[in-house]
Design brief:
Blueprint (H helix, E strand, L loop, with lengths): L8 H11 L11 H13 L9 E8 L14 H11 L4 H8 L3 E8 L15 E3 L17 H20 L4 E7 L3 H13 L3 H4 L8 H18 L6 H8 L2 H16 L3 E3 L2 H13 L7 E3 L1 E3 L2 H10 L5 E5 L5 H5 L1 H13 L3 H4 L9
Parallel strand pairs: 1-2, 1-4, 2-3, 4-5, 5-6, 7-8
Helix pairs in contact: 1-2, 2-14, 5-10, 6-8, 6-9, 6-11, 6-12, 10-11, 11-12
Amino acid sequence: MFNVKEVSKSFEKEALARQNTLTKPQGSLGQLESLAVLLAGHQSQICPQITTPWISVFAADHGIAEEGVSAFPSVVTQEMVKNFSVGGAAITVLAKANQASFEVVDVGVLADITDGGKHPFKHLQSYRVASGSFNFLQQPAMTVEMLNKAMAVGCTAVERALESGADLFIAGEMGIGNTTSATAIIAQICNGSVKDIVGLGTGIDSAQKIKKVAVIEQGLLQHQAQFIEPLAVLRCVGGLEIAALVGAYLACAEKGLTMVIDGMIACAAALVVCEMAPDAKNWMIFGHQSVEPAQQLVFERLGVQPLLDLSLRLGEGSGATLSIPVIKMACLLHEQMATFSEAGVSESEVVK
């Protein structure tokens, strides 16, 4: 049982009342209006603000990458962790542009790039659970102990964010092979056709896509008897960084911290969380629609609508971070627009 913090319905009601008096037709700002109302409930104030966003990118390798389901070798995970730590990745550029705190967390990269702490990297947090997950065609991707430890890594990231005064949490991910694991999770929970929802991931060709479909179908069939609850699906076909995402999202919901969900990998984690604790969805904003078809299945199951559609398939938390300015504008419009009475503008008869 998870203790999800209640959103303040009274402040949501007051924020909605303010929205309905602003100098615009009701509903004309679309999702910007509902965002402001949602955040008012999160922050228990009529006019919410986003000033201190936090980004944690969780990195881990996947044993299933041995099956040739990715266009890149597993070594790319550790190479990209180094790139994150020195500010050369897309997400680090976006984090800096949005004045967001940034960290990359090694949950289970195949090799420890710090060599046991001898070579520290800027922005890198090392909370290694294992040197990657197992190949889920041979055994469950994680043991129960690995799963629990990886989820705890996500929880501690949220604790760091809250200690820094964060008012918005974004979790990104990095792990060669993780679109295979995420697609398997989504297909199982949503009862989706694997063939219909497998995407291109890192840019695989048609032969690799056929192989990816077969690998996922075989893995789901192999572990079907163990899929008694969402965490079992995560443990059997997921990955360490996806487990960290799940832990982080659960912690955000319990602590009452607004989270912006990124692309397909992050949505797989959000799906697991919402299956376990449905009210956790009240603390989620879905940042963007990626080109991965499995993500749409999550949106349909949860009944949510993403903010942006920029045809992204990068991951890293990039799409969620791109949504920060939109979320901030929603708050500013809500706070700074004049009401009809303040501006001396005649209201619609419908409003009256």
